[in-house]
Amino acid sequence: MAYFFETLIAGLFAGLMYGLVAIGFVLIYKASGVFNFAQGAMVFLAALVFVTLVEHGIHFWVAFAATSALMVLTAVAIEALVLRPLRNRDPLTLFMATLGLSFVIDGATQFFLGTDVHMLDVGIDDIADDYGGLFISRFDIIASLIVIALVAVLAIVFSKTRMGVSLRAVADDTLAAQSIGIRLPVIWRIVWSVAGIVALVAGLLWGARQGVQYSLSLVTLKALPVLIIGGFSSIPGAITGGLFVGAGEALADIYLGPLVGGSVSTWFAYILAVAFLLVRPAGLFGDRDIERV
Amino acid sequence: MTTLQDTVPETGPTASIVTNPAVLRLALVLTSIVVAFGVVPAIATDYWLSSIIIPTIVMGLAGISLNLLQGYAGLVSLGSAAFMSVGVFSAYNLILRAPALPLPVVLVLAGLTAAGVGIFFGLPALRIKGFYLGASTLGAQFFFQWLFTNYPWFSNNSQSLTISAPRLEFFGYDLQSPVGRYLLVVTVTALLIGFAFLVVKSRLGREWMAIRDMETAASVLGVRVASRKLQAYAISSFFLGITGVLWGFAYLGTADAHTYNLDKSFQVLFIVLIGGTATIFGNFLGAAFIVLTPILLDHLVLSANIAYLSDQGAITNLQRVIFGAIIIFILIKEPDGLSAWTRRGAEALRARLKT
Amino acid sequence: MSMLSKTIALATGALIVAATLNAPVQAQDATGQQLYPLFTYRTGPYAPSFIPFGAGNIDYLRYVNEVEGGVNGVKILVQECETAYTIERGIECYERYKNGFNGALTAAVYPHSSGLDVALTDKARADKIPIVSPGGGQNIATDGRVFPYQFPLIFDYWSEAQIIVDYIAQQVGGYEKLKGVKIATLYHDSGYGRDTIEPLGILSKKYGFEDIQIPVPHPGEQQQAQWQQIRRAGADWVFLRGWGVMTPVAIKTAARVGFPADRIIGDIWSGSEDDARPAGVAAKGYLAVSVFPPGTDYGIIKTLKEKIVDQGKSDLKDNSKFGTVYYNYGVIEAITFVEALRTGQQKFGNRPLTAEEGQWALENLNIDQKRIIELGAEGLISPLKTTIDNHKGETIAAKIIQWNGESWNTRTDWIKADSTLFADVIKAKAAAYAAEKGITPREAASN
Fold this sequence. Notes:
The structure holds three protein chains of three kinds. Chain B is mainly α. Chain B has a domain at 20-257. Chain B is built from 13 helices and four strands. In chain B, strands 1-4 form a two-stranded antiparallel ribbon. In chain B, strands 2-3 form a two-stranded antiparallel sheet. In chain B, a hairpin with a 2-residue loop joins strand 2 (169-170) and strand 3 (173-174). By secondary structure, chain C is an alpha/beta fold. In chain C, strands 6, 7, 8, 9, 10, 13, 14 and 15 form an eight-stranded mixed beta sheet that branches. Chain C has a three-stranded parallel beta sheet with strand order 2-1-3. In chain C, strands 4-5 form a two-stranded parallel ribbon. In chain C, helix 13 packs across helix 14 (355-363). At the B-C interface, helix 1, helix 2, helix 5, helix 11 and helix 12 of B face helix 1, helix 2, strand 2, helix 3 and helix 4 of C.
């Protein structure tokens, strides 16, 4: 039984990380109505810039601030060069544009910073402690606390501040929001910037575990099922969906994998997502109506 | 080959024999046949056939397959490559386990297998619309990649889980040479294009477009929406299945699950968006773009000789940036895809001819 | 109407493209040179390993060209072609260079990708071009009678499994002590990763150790469940057959569940600096199999430092990569190419070789201990002798290396695999392949 719980807990921690990546998608989806495939490339960009700065002897928080500033600049550039010219186009075109954007971002990142694998030490030991027979990593616990804190901050910002209210207005009805004077480009810039900073945090936590390298940008592929399960437009949904996927994958690998002769986690999340689409298309927390037949 | 929008006949005093569309169309079809079956095999080098012309045609065909689904029926698929892989693995096993079957039968059966799979993964289309459908087809993408790497039976227990193309022959005629493989590809493509035309001009095609444009109205008018949608998935997957066989056997000479990965699915999607939705001709422009751009960029770097001035790795990454930027640029500037360029060129020329 | 002009537009476009593609890329005539088409993957997830690997290749060939004046006077022309590690772009590169370039002849193609190696099998057979994959070829292609044009030189994963078991036997005090020892293989869930299931099954029956096989799905960024399984099974050793990001994650996760790093032995593709370093302190003591031993103390590596790197002629942009696993791998690969050219020149004369001559040369390679010393490659490569029967090399050997937290240390001398153990199984597989494809194997004595 302890084995079951350890697997479950490990899956849940992994799920929180998925959720963290998914939050970046949710923010952008709410504001721009696009599934931003380039989010993974942004995670890679942020992590690589950060680790390069730190390797040049720059202090952790200075590097963090500088990288955040770069992410804001990137967001402004994306808004001006990609989103604005493509406004009012169908979601598939926007999706393809973000695919192109992901080529540009990860190509440019490696053009300037090289393709080396970097070790990233964020100063948290990744050693398991014994909690009554369950071994849980200190890194996992601290990372979870960081994710929870980040979600709390975002939740407060987006529910209490004027900016958050504007964002919700845009998400609910873009035309009405514009007609009462909300400036869409400003909202876009802010949201993409916040998504960039979320990408930085995600990049640091993922990068600390697997090294900062190109494969960081592949986390995007885990985010889609998470979003379908949690709902595309809800931050709590992203976290819950992440937990669902993380725990489901870990357990399926252990209990379902041996029955079918191999690991199943590459597609398990998607099958789970399809099941959700059939049963509850809006996802667990989706507040924007999905187009249904 | 033409876009389907250009079907309005021209009449009036200016329509002479030169500008009569029916005559022109016939002439063009005949010319295409002569070029495709006579001129190209006669003048193209092996390099051109094997590494440029064949992949362009096959990818163009993949674009047509997805276009039937997306451009005409308004449905989404992010897993085109999965259906291609179903096609190639079916064909391989059919040839392996029933060697008596002639190639055309194998192709049709492989297409039908893919069509069956397509119907299954199209089922969510009965419940949901739009981008979300992508998730289901993306599920197909990952599931089949897993299936073909996990069960070595599909690749006849080969060590690397890779299947290699069987000997290609058509009633005793050897198709192994580049020209032979080209002729196979071109023939299959021509037949499938003909089939695609029949489909989109038939009642089925018109009802797809009705569903795409006005689903509610269509169902009020008596269109059986559910079965039409599944038929769209079936026919599109049938095409993709055959495309997959051509890609594996006639182009690569090999196939494994990884050959038909997500990148390939995205490439097919790019072809449709770049070439233009709801056009047949545009798909080949899109395919040419996808196949040629990386090669041209590579040549450009070599001929400019900047490779030695700078870091080669940096340059290849720069190519990636340029490729992405071109895609964004086309999406922004040409909402209707590259085929809009030629259409505009055509209009300009027509205006000149008329004066 | 519109169709006419569309056709004109298309034709014009096609002409422009054709002109660009057919234009002589570098006009200078390269007759009299030997072409080395260098298949690169400087982009994509595997770029970090290619960059030092490509540099090792290029640096050695530059050394041969500029310091030794070519191979018996024949200069080697390196032409890069980016495959991005995809098969279709690899095929385009193959088609582009299979017939030479501007007069320089192609003697062999090194595809630098196991998938591409398989994909080129039939084409190369038809075109009669040798395909060489040191360390990454198809094991069944060892049988040169069935695969005249495939050269899976130097290493294969079945031998690797033997070497691992041999090393573990040494550690526990002999083969007879292996009974009851639990060896878990954590493998990348792909054709590559599954390749060791069969030989380990045979070895486990033979020596009585317990064989545990655990797959990790690609890319392998989550392995908590797998490592808990390893801990629960009470594994004594882990054979880590990783790929890319899977390796550092495995090492870190092992530390998290409390599995000691010095009981994990990595595969040759899990044994580079980029595999161990990202795992930080957790990797200290981690072991790996190495056929491309890292280090800068080998004669030829020192020479390259002096004549190429210090002269600013190296392809490396970051000199800290000098002497790393992948750099030395590149040097070793280039040595196999140059030595094949020398072998062929002894028979055909001191001129560029054709592909057919290259095939003969690769099939009659004999880099013995004496030649290794002449090359200054003692300790860097083990003897390599190919025959028509054996396209891999008659003795297969590897070292075990250990990560000290900063760099790799060599832990053992060459451990030789018993080449007779699996020879029949491989031959039988090759025969089955020949039957499936309708190939008549060549006679061993026909050459």
